[in-house]
Amino acid sequence: MDSTSSSASLIIPSFRCFDATNHRRYYSTLPSCSPTPRGGAGGSASIHVMGNSTTIADPKIVTGDCGYLLDDVAHLSDYIKDLPTYSNPLQDNPAYSVVKQYFVDVDDTVAEKIVVSKESPRGTHFRRAGPRQKVCKSNPCLSSCMYCNMWGLCPGINTVIREIVCGLYHMYGVTGVLGIEGGYKGFYARNTIPLTPKVVNDIHKRVGTILGTSRGGHDTSKIVDSIQDRGINQVYIIGGDGTQKGASVIFEEIRRRGLKVAVVGIPKTIDNDIPVIDKSFGFDTAVEEAQRAISAAHVESESIENGIGLVKLMGRHSGFIAMYATLASRDVDCCLIPESPFYLEGPGGLFEYIGKRLNENAHMVIVVAEGAGQELLSGNTCTMDNIDALGNKQLQDVGFWISQKIKDHFSEKQKLTINLKYIDPTYMICAVPSNASDNVYCTLLAHSAIHGAMARYTGFTVGPVNGKHSCIPFQRITERQNKVVITDRMWARCLSSTNQPSFFSAKQPFEKIGDEKHGDNHVEDLAIK
Question: Where in this chain does the record put each Phosphofructokinase domain (predicted)?
């Protein structure tokens, strides 16, 4: 603005309009562009969830110059023709109309990998999340939406629910919002809950979830029948990898029937085991709360001779919480995670290391993820083959088992009395309110989901990729689990902090476990930015 002028004028920038019904035509103008299925082969795949089987259509892959590849998400116009588009009501909203470049541009994509060499191709990208200037709904007030949450509490669930309800109401004028109680079976077996901004106003201050949780009950035909009968046109599904697989099956059945319904997933896993995204909501809160248990274990162990504080933390297949809580605490002498095998007896084993630390300090703290050492327990119990309602193998209590092993070893073989305190804060951590960081994160996830659904994208999960929120196809979220890569620097930092050995023996081949193509973990990238 000219400093000599006596008055100021506000210029609202114009934006490139994105007609969602023509988004495929846009890509056809890219140089050297051609739709290509992932892996270079055509055909389709199938997915099985709780006895339901459905065929997954080919991924929408678009290629460009210099090795550019867009792993795109589905759009209702892919199977419903002549969808009308309308101006986004946000352009008339005083809170948003003055924001420069608030609307996401048509060619905005987010790179999956940002650390590349000089000659590397541009690599895989995802469609950037955010509001579009054009939406595919003439009267948003008639929209109705549903939520489904599957199994397990996690800090921040109520915040996500609140922000979706309030975001739909205040940003797009959606007044018909329904909540589904009790997981997937709630679609056809339980009543719905009308959700309004007044109803959800203070639920972010409560722990747990107002919609309840459950396992099992996924009947694709009944679920989609319920969606169709109720006239639902947007479905928001909150849950982990198993729930996202269920959401993918629902999306495919909706597409097969040709319904005008957008299906959007919001990733929820306290273990941080969902791939592609930087981290899942609730993870920061879990690490913060885990430190309280570690601190208590440290106080107990150093207050008595030969004291050992043993803390078991969440992490069925991924040891992120244990690793980050260990690094943040600095009181931990040994961290055991599922990705890094260990053994108990013999040179370089856990018992030898415990004896060494007790001789040096007369106390120590051990952190173990719940999925660590399960291969050692399998030979000691006949219940390892038990599975839960979702088909997941039920884990044994490694904390209790290893506590007994430590006591027995030192009392019988070394005639040393061990004072061991075992702390399992799992349910205490799951049942706390989300911290400030997770509350903000939940808001961004909710808004990204809303904007994508209103633009009539479907069959995707939202989440940050290298710090930028993106729309990620369901198949990328469900194809694998995110795990700690024990050949990365972050695990090396953890070992350096505890001064523990790697516990690898000649009988255990050293294999690189986890996501090799990313190098360092996404959470580490965020931590060092």
Answer: 152-451
